[in-house]
Amino acid sequence: MSQLSTGTTNLTMTIGGAAVSGGSSFDVINPADQSVVGSAPECTRAELDTAVAAARAAAPAWAAVPFEQRQKLLLQMADVVDAHLVELGRLVTAEQGKALAVATAEVAGLSYWLRETAALTLPEAVNEDSAERLSVTRRVPLGVVAAITPWNYPIGQLSFKLGPALLAGNTVVVKPSTFTPLSTLRLGELLRDVLPAGVVNVVSGSGDLGSWLSGHPGIDKVSFTGSTQTGRAVMAGAAPTLTRVTLELGGNDPAIVLPDVDVPSMAEQLFWAAFSNTGQICLAAKRVYIHADIYEELTRALAAYAATVRIGDPMEEGTQLGPISNRRQYETVLDLIEDCRRQGYTFLTGGTPEPGPGFFVPVTLVDNPPEESRIVREEQFGPVLPLLRFDDVDDVVTRANAGEYALGASVWSADPDAALAVARRLDAGTVWVNEIMHLTPQVAFGGRKQSGIGVESGHDGLIEFTEEQTITVRHHTAPAA
Ligand code: NDP
């Protein structure tokens, strides 16, 4: 496997604008071959306290920077990211395992999100402007935001948090996943030259750092992306201090395929809907309901398409899918596959783990398992997909809406109106027709039910990094009647 050339072993945390190495460090593993990519500082409790204090100290001055100036600084941040696309992309691939082109696009997504976020505004609303009184409602920053990210898109997930939190006038303490801290640490280093000290702090750690941070009394808001289980812990930890939370959590997104689709092109689209980033996307199709009229044809076409996809070393040009990102997730996915095998379900392709040092799992299609099976009910977050047969639209809507998650959903048909009629009946934060996972910096997304609280992106995502404040000015000094 190809290795990174330089610069991965001495990455530092960013605390109060300074480099902090930490007393000790932990290894970051390349999931493609289990080699050590580099090491990351182990943030102590005292260092975290310093980071939060630095963010608090920087907050008033940052909130006082004119909005237009903060917009300009976001653009400068985007320039810095663009100037280091290749370096950051290689780091993401090495620590996360996605194909290099995809990782580089992920980093480019951060600069795109920064630029587009910079164009958002926070207008004041005039409630009353009369001879007697002026009443204005405006949005004010919350203070210090903890941005906690998962390992599937270490830079991508941060792009939904960093620009909006800063533009709204907050300072930030970022904590990446233990599995993928390196690209975020490097980003923190790069941003030191752009932003005032303390405005963005980046810490890394492998133990209790996440809970220390989300429960820290110096934090005003936790913007968290990760599993539902951890999201519940974050919310509980935030309760004593009434810390605000936005939680982007797990999903088990249904895709519903109506019988009138063009099967060959549908097979390719469905494949990428489910298996992009080796299935490790919160908004990926995680259970696919296919109308009985085309079930056999489409599932065969899907298996045939899967055979054409190149899985391997993500650093190598031409690789389309890499390994699972870490041992913990690898074992979760293998356990689900093993459960399918034990229950006697049929694999249309895959099902047998690949030998070798990397966390590679072949694309695995499970033929019509029962609705109550684990592979249908649980979030697999990996390259194993249940294909489910349906005859009746009412029945498939009920099945799609069952379960604790409600993040995304998709409906596929040659007749957009027919698809839209089904889409309107689905219980999910975002429902796509004839596409999937299309997110833009202008449109908010978020989960319902156990998939989360609040939204990210767009104007509503920006609003979540603020609080409402109404200022009322009475023009007369005489007491009101
Ligand atoms: P985890 O919940 O395990 O971890 C997410 C982050 O939270 C990590 O940085 C982790 O740190 C940190 N953390 C762990 N414990 C706590 C705690 N008690 N308090 C605060 N932070 C904590 O999720 P994964 O990283 O495994 O990510 C996969 C999950 O994320 C999937 O369920 C997926 O669906 C979901 N996800 C949701 C998305 C959405 O937008 N809705 C997008 C992408 C993923 P550490 O690594 O040190 O444990």
TrEMBL record:
Keyword annotations: Oxidoreductase
UniProt keyword Lipid metabolism, yes or no: no
Lineage of producing organism: Bacteria, Bacillati, Actinomycetota, Actinomycetes, Micromonosporales
A GO MF label: oxidoreductase activity, acting on the aldehyde or oxo group of donors, NAD or NADP as acceptor
Domain Aldehyde dehydrogenase stretches: 24-471
Protein name: Aldehyde dehydrogenase (NAD+)
InterPro entries: Ald_DH/histidinol_DH, Ald_DH_C, Ald_DH_CS_CYS, Ald_DH_CS_GLU, Ald_DH_N, Aldehyde_DH_dom, LUC3-like
PANTHER family reported for this sequence: ALDEHYDE DEHYDROGENASE-RELATED (PTHR11699)
Top-level taxon of the source organism: Bacteria
Family: Belongs to the aldehyde dehydrogenase family.
Keyword presence, Isomerase: no
Active site positions: E248
PROSITE patterns cross-referenced by the UniProt entry: ALDEHYDE_DEHYDR_CYS, ALDEHYDE_DEHYDR_GLU
